[in-house]
Write a structure and sequence with these properties.
381 residues; alpha+beta; Chitinase A, domain 3; 3 domains; 9 helices; disordered C terminus
C-alpha cells in the first residue's frame, strides 16, 4: 500500500515476541495464550505461535495509521497488509531460532537490551496511568492557558489576479456591490481558496508576508483593501472580523501535557533510584550527566572567560514522546496556501512543544505534531 514502511523496519518487535522454546517446534497448531493477551483475538497462527489482533493494532499505531485506543478494521487492507508483514517477521524469527542464531552472544546481548527498553517503556506507561490523572492534566492546562500570550487576529479573505488590469476589474466589480465571496469564486486565480470565497481563515499580521501584514493592519474591520502586489500576483483583501486569538483546547494540549507530566514523574523516580543504587561507571566521568538533577536551574552567568557550566540532560523519555522544541501553534487556514498569501511560514498543525519558561520552573507547552508511535523496542530518545 502507498506510504507503507519497509518490511524489516519493525522486525525487532516481532523477534522479541517469539518464544525461545520455538527452536524445537514440532508443527503443532495449539495456541497458548500468554499473560495479558486474553483480551485479544488471535489474528494468525504461524507454526503454533499466535499473532494477536492487538499486535496488528500496535504496529498500526507505529505506522501512524491509527492513534490512541483506535483499532484497525480486521477486514481492511491496512490490517491485512500489516498482518502479512508480521507473519513474515515471525517466520524469519522462527528460522533464526531454528538455526541457533538466538544463542549467539551478540544476539543474546541485543535481545537483553531490547528487553530492558521494553520494560522501561512499560514502567513509563504504568507511571502515567498511576500518577498522571485528569486533575493533574487540568491543573497544568489551566496554568498554561494563564501564561499564553494571546494577540489579535483577523479573519481574512482575498482575491488573487495575475495582472494589474485584472485586479482593477475585480476592484471595479466590488465597487458595484458584488459580494466579495462570490467574486472570489468567479475571478480569483488562487485555486486553493476561490471556492471558499477566498477564505484564508484567522491569522495574525506578524505571521503573514510583509505585503499582507501591512494590509491586515491597515484595513478596517469589514473593509476592503486597495490592490497590492506580491510575487504571486495582485491581490485585494477583505477583513471580515477581528478577535482575540483563541488558546488551544484541553484536548489539543492533552498529549503534550501528559508527556510533560510523565517526564517529571519519571525523572523523579530515576533520581530516587540513582540515589539508592550502587553505580560504578567504568568510563571517564568527564561530561557525565548521571548525577545532574534535570530540574536544577543553571547558575548565574559567570564572569567573562570562565568555563561554561556543563549542559544538563533532558529527562528520559519514551521513543514515542514528541520532540521538545517547536514554534507556538496558530490556527491554520482551511487549506495550504500559496507562498504569496498570508500563510508565509507554513503553520504547524497545533501539536508541538515549545519550552518557553513563564517562570524558572514552568515551561510553556504547546500541542505536539501528529506522529505515530514507534515500536516499543526502539530505544528512548
Amino acid at each position: 500500500m502507498a506510504g507503507r514502511r519497509p518490511l524489516l523496519a519493525g522486525v525487532a518487535a516481532v523477534l522479541l515476541g517469539v518464544s525461545l522454546a520455538a527452536c524445537g517446534r514440532s508443527g503443532e497448531t495449539t495456541v497458548d495464550v500468554g499473560p495479558g493477551e486474553t483480551d485479544s483475538a488471535v489474528a494468525a497462527v504461524v507454526n503454533g505461535e499466535p499473532i494477536y489482533v492487538s499486535d496488528v493494532d500496535n504496529e498500526g499505531r507505529y505506522q501512524g495509521l491509527i492513534e490512541g485506543v483506535e483499532k484497525l478494521e480486521v477486514d481492511s487492507a491496512e490490517f491485512n497488509d500489516i498482518l502479512d508483514d508480521l507473519i513474515q517477521f515471525k517466520l524469519l524469527a522462527q528460522e533464526a531460532e531454528a538455526r541457533g542464531l538466538d544463542q549467539d552472544p551478540l544476539a543474546r546481548h541485543r535481545l537483553a537490551s531490547a528487553r530492558e527498553t521494553i520494560l522501561g517503556n512499560i514502567l513509563k506507561d504504568s507511571i502515567t496511568s498511576e500518577r498522571v490523572d485528569e486533575a493533574a492534566i487540568k491543573k497544568m492546562y489551566e496554568s498554561q492557558v494563564a501564561i499564553w500570550e494571546l494577540g489579535d487576529e483577523a479573519h481574512v479573505r482575498h482575491i488573487q489576479a495575475p495582472t494589474k488590469d485584472a485586479i482593477d476589474k475585480v476592484a471595479a466589480e466590488l465597487k458595484k456591490g458584488v459580494d466579495f465571496s462570490v467574486l472570489a469564486s468567479r475571478m480569483s486565480t488562487d485555486t486553493t481558496t476561490k471556492m471558499e470565497g477566498g477564505d484564508l481563515g484567522y491569522m495574525k499580521a506578524d505571521e503573514a508576508t510583509p505585503e499582507f501584514a501591512k494590509v491586515i493592519r491597515d484595513t478596517p474591520t469589514g473593509g476592503v483593501s486597495k490592490p497590492f502586489e506580491t510575487e504571486a500576483g495582485w491581490h485585494i483583501v477583505k477583513i471580515d472580523e477581528r478577535r482575540k486569538e483563541q488558546p488551544p483546547s484541553l484536548e489539543e494540549l492533552r498529549e503534550p501535557i501528559v508527556q510533560h507530566l510523565t517526564r517529571i514523574q519519571l525523572a523523579q523516580l530515576i533520581k530516587q533510584l540513582q540515589s539508592e543504587a550502587k553505580i560504578e561507571k567504568r568510563t571517564s566521568p568527564r561530561n557525565s550527566t548521571l548525577e545532574i538533577d534535570p530540574f536544577d536551574q543553571p547558575d548565574e552567568p559567570k564572569a567573562a572567560g570562565a568555563a561554561p557550566a556543563p549542559q544538563t540532560a533532558a529527562p528520559p523519555a519514551d521513543a514515542r514522546d514528541t520532540p521538545a522544541t517547536a514554534a507556538k501553534p496558530v490556527p491554520a487556514p482551511p487549506a495550504a496556501k500559496p507562498a504569496a498569501t498570508p500563510a508565509a511560514p507554513a503553520k504547524p498543525p497545533a501539536q508541538q512543544i515549545k519550552p518557553v519558561p513563564a517562570s524558572p520552573t514552568q515551561p510553556r507547552i504547546a500541542p505536539p505534531q501528529p506522529s505515530g508511535p514507534v515500536s516499543e523496542t526502539r530505544p528512548p530518545n
